Amino acid sequence: MIEVPKIGCICEKPPLHYENYTEKPLGTDMTNGRYGEVTIKECIHCKRKWLNYFVEYEFYSKSGRWYSGIIAEEDLKAIHPENAIGYLEALEWYIYGGSFFSGTGCIGKGKARVDL
To answer: I need a labelling partner for 95 at 20 to 30 A (CA). Which of 30, 46, 48, 112 fits?
Structure first.
């Protein structure tokens, strides 16, 4: 069972709302032809940085999925679109959701289901 983090800010509690963040695109992950959109988000309340990964397969309904996890400021320079999933999978926990999961956000950890 995944231990749910103690909620310290609105940015940690699903459902997440885009108005609580500023966003900076990091690039597109082309691994396995997935065209994953990778962004760095910053909470406007607590200023923590979040690594966000979104992928959707246009030819499959309900295939959209996203993962978002808190990242340390010193790790920002080492994160690139191609290693974003590996970084998220190594975190203690992340938040995930999307039409693939029929949800607006759950706490998870470990393997991220980004490929078909």
So the answer is: 30
- Give me 53's structure tokens: 């990964």
3-class DSSP string for the chain: CCCCCCCCCHHHCCCCCHHHEEEEEEEEECHHHCCEEEEEEEECCCCCEEEEEEECCCCCCCCCEEEEEEECHHHHHHCCHHHHHHHHHHCCCEEEEEHHHCEEEEEECCCCCCCC
Question: What's the rounded Cα separation, in Å, for the pair 113 and 116?
Answer: 8
pLDDT of amino acid 83:
98
